[in-house]
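Regression test attached.
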Amino acid sequence: MVEAKTVETQTLPQSAPGEREFMLDVRTQDMEVNMGPQHPATHGVMRILVRADGEVCTGAQPHLGYLHRCAEKIGENVEWLQYLPYTDRYDYLAAMNNNLGYSMAVEKLMGIEIPRRALMIRTICAELNRIGSHLIAFGTYGLDIGAFTPFLYMFREREWMMALFEKICGARLTYSYIRIGGVFNDAPPGWLSEVERFCDTFEQKWQEYVDLLMVNHIFVQRTANIGVISRAMALDFGLTGPMLRGSGVDWDLRRDMPYELYAEIWKDGVFSIPLGRGEHGTLGDCWDRSYVRVMEMIESIKIVRWCLGAITPGPVIADIPKTLRVPAGEAYVGIENPRGELGHYVVSDGGKVAVRCRVRGPSFTNLAVLEELMPGALLADAVAIIGSTDIVVGETDR
Amino acid sequence: MLLGLLGAAQTGTNPIREFLEGVKPEAVPGWAVALTAIGIGVGITVAVISVIAMFGTWLERKVSGHIQCRYGPMRAGWHGWLQPIADGVKLLLKEDLVPKGADRVLYVIAPALVLASVLAAMAVYPLAPGFFFADIDLGIFFILAMTSTTTIGVVMAGWSSNSKWSLYGSMREAAQVVAYEIPLGLSLLVPILVAGTFNLLEVSQAQAGFFGLNWYVWPWVNPFMLPAFVLFFIAILAETKRAPFDLPEAESELVAGFMTEYSGIRWSFFFMEEYAAMYLYSVVGAFFFFGGFESPLTWAAIEAFGDGSVMHQVAAGTTLVVKGFAGVFLMMWLRWTLPRVRIDQVMTLGYKYLTPLALVCVLGAGLWELFLAPVLPWRQG
Amino acid sequence: MDFRGILDRLRATGAPGLLGHDLPRAADPKDKKDKGRGGDPFLWVEPAQLPAFLERCRDDERLRFELLIDLTAVDPSKDDPNLWVVVSLLSLAHRHRLTVKCALPKAAASLPSSVPVYRAAQWHERECGEMYGITFAGHPDPRHILLPEDWVGAPLRKDYVFPDEYHGISCK
């Protein structure tokens, strides 16, 4: 039996002495509340130690590591191709994007060229997975706020997306489909037209979500002016993705440091980058971040449509030996994950196994801002703030 | 429960007692009859509450299922109608836990107190115009008083669970319920002003006739009725802790709020109380705004079978049940559509917006009654 | 700017601690052992001056690296006496990236903390420190982040040996 042991002895930041002047004569003790590891609102196995004065948080301390599965150590012990299934499992809601990031990093070191059809399919899969990931992000955010129904509606679309992925690679959640050199296999016949049907239906359903949740007065009241991240704070904390764009910072790797086909797609004027505008409340609040995620779903549909129109037959994978020896060197490749910049930093000495396989997970970096946002927020707002960071603990811990 | 019935036993009578008086053997003393009547009344009330709670859980699951594009329970019986029974059996068989460090006495009493308050309120509800347990003149006042005591039980539950999450839930609940008592009472004052009585049966009779056009909610009776009903409905949503005011049991934040540490039959007491309270408040709304027992169906039964006949009773009782569950359905519909309002927003709404509006409604309704009602032709007689 | 431009700018403004650079190169046909190096170019920086260097990267007008993307470490091999601390920077204004490396001796792996320059470094340094046994001097909160508080050893080092047991749980 493991003996229970209290290990944390750090003190949380105290409220400033003059902060609660109007309650000086009713000074009560701050309460330390433990959110998690098992908690409906922490989006995974994570523990946040909250010090609360009644309903107001005075400090928050996230404790991570409950889902640490030593991905980076494993990367140094298995062969290059064998590592791919591990990449699925950090951000399991956007597994295609993880595969893509890792494959691109290794391909950069190898210097190989990917066939065009493979690039098309990769882009379709990555964008569909972005939609799926944002559906969960927004749906569970509604669940945290108390709206049970939009979550199930979004899962209806997500089921369709997962069925599409099941047809193409056999898996619903952890795909290992985008491989070094291209994609594992070609799309089965009829798959592309089914994707097109998905796009057509999704646009109507998307409007449903906006009407039901996004502009719902109660939702706006719960998320506007909450968890405001200023531009300076966002940059200082190294935030990327919707966290950064929600604060009005116009940065998206797909447009600004394009990879794969995005340079072409951007040149054709296919999609735009939604930014938070402070429409309800302050710029950089939780509503803006949700807004960015919701609008990105439609932009992804546009990208998928472009790919469906431009795809041509051809090979789907470059010629990669089964035992891959990647040329010596090191490379960093960052791609736009639904949560931010997913970076893979791989170091090779020419062997079968990586020397270093570092994963820069956006959720890990994005979560750090919680320590700054929580003090001063109400406990109910704490849940709203955590939900708006859209973290996946698999990626936070790796 | 006993309070209401005892009151009735001493001061008045009810159909059960009359029936027993009629069939009793000569030697049986009066107090024995009274006690038997009380016993039977309690039994029927508990049965009715149980059925309502069971049907309420089934309805909730079906309604939520269909709103969420899924079916809900389908396996236990036809469309899952046996599901509540299955749930009840499961809950009865669960291990009886009391958390370590919990205040044992309070922990055990809390759910019982909560359910007892609602059962007590039920004592005053007539099931049909001729079938009631206690026809007291303070009808609605008694109901409001009894349902308020559930707050004590909830706070006891939260405190005695020895869990911070439960404490948060019960603190929120106490604040919320107390805040919304005021608009609840004030909004009910509007129909009371028009009816001139607290008694539920008399209020229902005052809305009789004309095919349901005499219901108080219509604007031609009193234009302040409809706003009063809206306020009343919002207030009962808050009182029964239903979304969008379901912070005390805010599932995604506080695990299960004040009910976190409860399991098995104790937990089911809280849930029975919730559905029973939903139904009972909705029936109060039906009595004061929507005619209570009066409906076209009742009117037809009176015409066909005579006032006071069995068919009239059945028609009236059915009408009331339908109205009650219509309100319950509306509450469920709202729950599955709307997100949750934050506690300080709930309090702001209650104190800063609903209470002044309710006062305005009462004032306006009173002035209308005083000056305009005697003049309007359809308000005579 | 491309890497050349960034390097020239840093040299021109006298960035503190800049030691050298390393570019990808093809294999040397004359030397069989030299397999060449692919991938990205990077800079070598003196560990003790890393925060000052990063501050220059962040504040210089032509460089403007507003975001610290990653701060991590690499253990190149068991035989190498050094660890590398690798910092990835990103500039939104000028759309360029930079990789900065410091070589630390494994026996005395310590360097000043970059938290005053980039708040993002706070958690990255915690993870890097616990995984490689690197001390970031001046870090405001140097607790373990992913590993339990009482974990012994630096797991990502190449010479790390997994413990036999942890709190009575066998690790075999």
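Expected vs. actual: identical. Chain B has one domain: 2-379.
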